[in-house]
Amino acid sequence: MDNNYTFTRKTQYWVMSIAGLGILLLIVGYFINSPSRQELWTNILINNLYFLFIALFGGVFQALHKIAYSGWHTALQRIPEALTSFLPIAAVLMFVLYFGMHDLYHWSHEGLHDPILEGKAAYLNIPFFFIRMTVYFLGWIGLTYLLRKNSLHQDAFADMKYYKRGKFLAAIFMVFFAISSSTMSWDWIMSIDAHWFSTLFGWFVFIGLFEIGIATIILMISFLKKKGYLEFINKEHIHDMGKYLFAFSIFWMYLWFSQYLLIWYSHIPEETAYFAPRLHDFTILFFTVLVLNFVIPFLGLMTRNSKRNLNWLTVMAIVVLCGQWLNIYMLVIPGTIGKTAQIGLVEIGFVCLYLGGFLYVVFSSLAKAPLLSKNDPLLEESFHYET
Amino acid sequence: MRRYISAYFEDEENLLRAAKDLKNNNISIQDVLSPFPIHGLDPILGFKKSLIPTVGFISGAIGTIVAFGFQTWAFTVDYPLFIGGKPHFSIPSFIPITFELTVLFAAFGMVTAFLVRSKLGPGAKKTIHDERITDDHFVIIVDLEESGSQDGMVEEILLKEMAQEIQVKEIEL
């Protein structure tokens, strides 16, 4: 089969109907549930973050493997590149939050006379917030664009300088991402509960991002293979993706528990005020997140064979994707909407709408370049990879 | 008297290729000696999948139950103390020890199973074929009686893959 993905009309209709279903659910949900403005903005924030994380992971995957001299990933290269094409749209969607700042972020209100918020005012103020947002997106979009351009040039001219430039860009991206991923999670998620902070938070969100990204790439591999593409991706590559999904679900649980245990043990009211509503008002959701993100992937992906079976991995990836969405929901909801929050038509509608849009952008980008980065020097290693 | 060929290699890749060639020619390999496990050798030698991972899982599960159960008993029934104002049955504080014992039991279980199965436990007989195997040489041993009169073929394959040395030994059983 040729190595160029065609974004067929049929797939386009499927994708657009997912988005259309989303709009329909939103309209119906709007009339049935009458969501408040705050609920609408919260949903926009949650889905912004979720799909931004997938797009960002495209860059992380490329950069991480380039700087580690990894060879096996080169066969997969084009999929993360396509994921990053969503970043500009994610940027626009995040900037739209300007109109919802008061509904989402308590600290954005004027005249609160709150000593804790006044102490943080040098960081948590609207101008600086948006300056940071601009810097993040300039860096992410700029670097992933350069990485993509470099990769496409490498296809055209087999010159070692593209390999070296790729490693250089990857290194810059990793440093920039390491800092910006922490600060972005503080800005956009942690500041919702502005009286609280956790030094593990940046890492916790990053590992969630990683899990979401790996699960998405697994689903994309599954989708493309079913259509007959990606013949060069064999069980060994799939095994490694399964290892990632398994390992990072354990890591995610480790960070989740580290954050929780320390706060539980020291029992300091300023810190426990974060978990109290989550544990008491959202108990089922709280534990569902643990089961979906850790218990099921941990037990389901333990054996070697389970990690080599693409169909099983697809199931696990879907479980993780649902679990991670609920994780972001849990991070955001108690601080914004509170006890009255529910997962109803509006929530599902928003997810479908975003999903349709996201898939449209990513599949279009996937069709713009061959699925095989043919001149990558480490490509042969990827074909003969054994694990 | 049985005759064996011992072929010494300096690189495990060569040994792997030689083993594949021997297998393709239906020459059974008596043994392979190596200072470290060689990736990809098990299928060539026709080894069944090891059960040690299963032993690890079961031992780990036993560890989890033992750790969690013992802490529960110790802190609720036997010696309940108020530590930091926490409840007696405080699951979060039980988790780190539970995790550690799970890993410990799994490790002990696997190591013990390995030593028992490979007969390397206390009192094992020392049978080192050649001390260089513990350092940087790899050996394929082929039983010449079993492979019929294919001495020439065996030597040819072994030398093709750059065996450094070929010794023909006669062992009394």
Looking at this protein, list some descriptive labels.
heterodimer; A: about 375 residues; B: Alpha-Beta Plaits; 2 domains; four-stranded antiparallel beta sheet; 5 helices
Sum up the overall morphology of chain B in one term: elongated
Rg of chain B is 25 Å
Number of DSSP strand runs of chain A: 0
Give start-end ranges of low-pLDDT stretches of chain A. Answer: none
N→C terminal distance of chain A: 26 Å
Write the layout of secondary structure elements.
The complex is a heterodimer of chains A (387) and B (173).
Chain A: H1 9-33, H2 37-67, H3 78-83, H4 87-96, H5 101-104, H6 115-119, H7 126-156, H8 160-188, H9 201-226, H10 235-266, H11 269-280, H12 283-300, H13 304-307, H14 310-336, H15 345-367, H16 379-383
Chain B: E1 2-9, H1 12-24, E2 29-33, H2 41-45, H3 52-78, H4 91-117, E3 138-143, H5 151-160, E4 165-171
Helix pairs in contact in B: 1-5, 3-4
Structure description:
The complex is a heterodimer of chains A (387) and B (173). Chain A is mainly alpha-helical. Chain A has helices at residues 9-33, 37-67, 78-83, 87-96, 101-104, 115-119, 126-156, 160-188, 201-226, 235-266, 269-280, 283-300, 304-307, 310-336, 345-367, 379-383. In chain A, helix 2 packs across helix 9. The radius of gyration of chain A is 21 Å and the shape is globular. The two termini of chain A are 26 Å apart. The mean pLDDT of chain A is 93. Chain B has 173 residues and is an alpha+beta fold. Chain B folds into 2 domains: 2-35 and 133-171, Alpha-Beta Plaits; 52-117, no CATH class. Chain B is built from 5 helices and 4 strands, in the order E-H-E-H-H-H-E-H-E. In chain B, strands 2-3-1-4 form a 4-stranded antiparallel sheet, covered by helices on one side. Chain B is elongated, with a radius of gyration of 25 Å. Chain A binds chain B through residues 257, 260-261, 264-265, 267, 302-304, 386, and chain B through 39-40, 53, 57, 84-86, 92-93, 95-96.
